[in-house]
Amino acid sequence: MSSTRKKSIVSLPIDCMYEIIQQLPEESQILYKFLFVNRFWFKSIVSLLWKYPFKKINEDSVKNARLIRTYLGCLDEEEKNNIEIDHHFKLPSIQKPFLNYAKYLTNFTIDELNSSVRDWYFDYRKSLLYKTVVNKDFEKAILSSIYHLFIRSNHSNLESLEFKQDCIHSWNWEKVLQDTIRLSSLRILTVELHEDLKDDGDNKISDLEFFNILLSRCTNLQTLKIYLTIHEVQEEYLKCFSANQIIKIIQAQKNLEILNISNFYKHGSELTKIISGLESQCNSLRELQFNDINFKGCSLIGLKFCSNLESIIFSSCCGLTKDHCNTLSQSSFKLKSLYFHDLIITHLNVIAKMLYLFGNSLTSFGTTILTNDIINTASIRCPNIKCLSIITRSDFYLQEIFSWICNLELIELDITSSDQEPSKFFQLLGYYLPNTLKILKLQCSYVSNNSLKNLFSSHMNLERLIFRNSYEFNYDCLMVIYEYIINCKNFKELTFKTYRKEWSLRDLKVLEEIKKHCPLVNCEFEISTVEEMLDGFVF
Question: Which of 57-61, 116-120, 302-306, 335-339 has the lowest mean pLDDT?
Fold first, then answer.
């Protein structure tokens, strides 16, 4: 036997290698190096890099334009004809990419796509010798074709989709959504309605046909978002609005967890039908989100069937009364989360009544309205709140609010002060904050170094501190924050969401020192990270 042996290379099964690759951080620059390992690694890494392309480019107009150019190169002849023949817009000559990158997409929003198309169109017009007038029809045609490309290419990857009427017309969707393209991976669907769906119109396919085709393909939704877009010319049509199609798609789901309903200013009886239709999801539904809803003429009695409902969010809603609360008193569910944002309430004691009904089980609560009645009810009925989101207005009830807060074992506090001189606010905040607090999100009009000293006089040991502030942080403020962070054991995140556009060299030096003690430091305005700001300076 030869004394020298060839060392065998241990090779992992492909499935194991794929799972390992999927665990790699998606934002890491090292991913690009892995593209050149071998063909298997190339395909696996490409699928990672192109899962969320719109989010990765972070609203960069140049990168947006390049991204759309790549997708335009992936269009088939029908999609190109929709732009060039149907809308008389000549696309530039674009070489077809080596891969159809659209097939790796897992989710996108219409707003992201629309913004990117606009950036590409603007960039393309600049390259022309004779500048053309901006034509919104051209932009819509390009958006519509890329939207078609995404659905055509993604029968197994697409997790999120928006049904928006401007995008669905002009296509033979029955051909696209054939039996082999079932969109079985779709988990989030957003449906826009201008009026009730019906079989007419001058388009190749009506709204109702597309909706019914989509309905037969999407039965595994976890989140369904429905919103009405109302135009003045359509107001007469909306008087005849019917919720039948919405109820059908709810009933078709196997395990719907989150339902978001928006922009129902009328049609209380139809909203009642939708809520009653939730009986088909009584075991799976976990969260209800109501945005811009008028509850006048609407009954919530259908919610009594949703025994596993855990969260209800009311945002910019009106028409809620004590009768709605009395209806909910018959329900068997125990809420863990309850939020009231910018609520226009006929009876201000609606919030207090809801807290009386569900307070004992609540672990998360938020409101933009605080009255003495709400504070007293919360103090008595809500002993288990761990996450709290509130707004304090001037000095009203400040002492009562903080007396309530100090008796809670809070983990997260999101608090906004609308007072122009928040010195008393910071003094009370530092004195009364519970030592269990780990996450503090703070918004106010003015922050001084003395205010921060009052805040940090508390014995709390924060892990995350987020400032949503309209005032510039000066050097003295940063030094107070730095002194606090170096004495914290497990500090993980410092974020500034301010209007400040520039930091001085002295400020940046403090931020650089903070980064030595804090893994994540964000400055969320024009520049997203401290590293990007530091790149321009030599210390």
Answer: 57-61
Cα distances from 464 to residues 327, 363, 408, 428, 491, in angstroms, run: 40, 19, 19, 20, 6
State whether residue 165 is helix, strand or coil: helix
- Give one DSSP letter per residue of 478-537, joined into a string: HHHHHHHHHT-SS--EEEEEES-----HHHHHHHHHHHTT-SEEEE-SSS-BHHHHHTT-
Query: Which amino acid does the sequence have at 64?
Result: N
- Cut 0.90: pTM above it: no
Pairing of strands 464-469, 493-498: parallel
The pair of structure tokens assigned to 77 is: 């002849």
Instruction: Tokens for 229, please give them.
Output: 């877009």
CA separation (Å) from 442 to 418, 446, 509, 518?
A: 11, 11, 24, 18
Output the pLDDT for position 130: 57
Q: Report domain extents, the chain.
A: 12-49, 413-539
Q: Are 530 and 523 in contact (CB under 8 A)?
A: yes
Whole-angstrom distance, CA of residue 120 vs CA of residue 94:
13
H or E, element range at 365: strand 364-367
For residues 262 and 234, the answer to whether their CB atoms sit within 8 Å is no
Non-local (6+) Cβ contacts of 125 within 8 A are 131, 132, 134
**456: number of CA atoms within 13 Å, CB side?**
19
> Residues near 181 by Cβ (< 8 Å), separated by ≥ 6?
151, 152, 155, 217
Nearest alpha carbon to residue 55 among 536, 528, 412: 528
Q: For residues 513 and 515, what is the distance between their CA atoms, to the nearest angstrom?
A: 5
Q: Is 50 a residue whose pLDDT tops 60?
A: yes
Nearest residue to 225 (alpha-carbon basis) of 254, 273, 265, 257: 257
Total residues belonging to the chain: 539
The pLDDT-based confidence of 230 (bands split at 50, 70, 90) is low
